[in-house]
């Protein structure tokens, strides 16, 4: 196949802008980190609802976005952020109480949200209203919750009174995903013969997947000294866990698009597709990493 230089340039520029924006927002401040992933989650939710429409559903978009916002806000590390700010006298007691109250209301909202949506479906005149409500709820769980949990993961609890803001931890997780993607692609291109799940993703091979996992596992041993210090066993465990989960996340999104009959989830990134296309691995990795650190 002839090399399309115009497409290559477009993809390269788009990828470079994306990487700079991602690393800059993650590493700058907690506010930039949280705003970035909030934008990602809302765009991703919109893409999910468009995919759902392709699959014959009609999600309740307005109520979905309302509860999507509540879900994201409820998992923001407001308590950690407020403790840091109040300890430096940046916030008054009233400001602290107001912001803390907003988060508590958001937490109540996400627990009640699914039941409110199902009740709302009763009064909808659209056909398959329960199905539409389930797709509405599913979009929040798939496109919003994983990015929301990153807000908890970025504040690392090292046993102190106040959790430490640790953007390098998130970047380390993302680098492991990128490592797996890169070496799985190279390994599959050079040695791939046996298709993994051809009817879902024709390009994925067992050889490429295994090479991606093994090299990422090896790379993870350097992360204590190069990225972020954890207990000795943590990064190697993540070096196995993350590539496996990232691969599953990629396949799940491929299956979703295939059933919807579309090539890309969106077009926000020229040459790369949509938010769900770019973050499909992180969507699946984030909840498991959150549980891993909590345990």
Description of the structure:
It is a single chain. The protein has 295 residues and is mostly helical. The chain has one domain (5-294). It is built from eleven helices and two strands. It has helices at residues 5-28, 30-54, 61-75, 78-87, 93-122, 129-153, 167-191, 206-220, 223-226, 234-260, 275-294, and strands spanning 155-156, 164-165. A hairpin with a 7-residue loop joins strand 1 and strand 2. The radius of gyration is 20 Å and the shape is globular.
N to C succession of SSEs: HHHHHHEEHHHHH
Please bin the fraction of helical residues. over 70%
Largest sheet: 2 strands, antiparallel
Overall form: globular
Radius of gyration: 20 Å
Structural class: mainly alpha
Unreliable parts: none
Q: Give the N-to-C terminal Cα separation.
A: 49 Å
* SS summary, helix count: 11
* pLDDT averaged over residues: 86
Tell me the number of strands.
2
Name the strands of the widest sheet in spatial order.
1-2
How many structural domains? 1
Strand content: under 5%
List the topology elements:
Elements: H1 5-28, H2 30-54, H3 61-75, H4 78-87, H5 93-122, H6 129-153, E1 155-156, E2 164-165, H7 167-191, H8 206-220, H9 223-226, H10 234-260, H11 275-294
Antiparallel strand pairs: 1-2
Q: Which descriptors would you attach to this protein?
A:
single chain; 295 residues; mainly alpha; two-stranded antiparallel sheet; 11 helices; globular
Short characterization:
Helix content is 75%, strand content 1%.
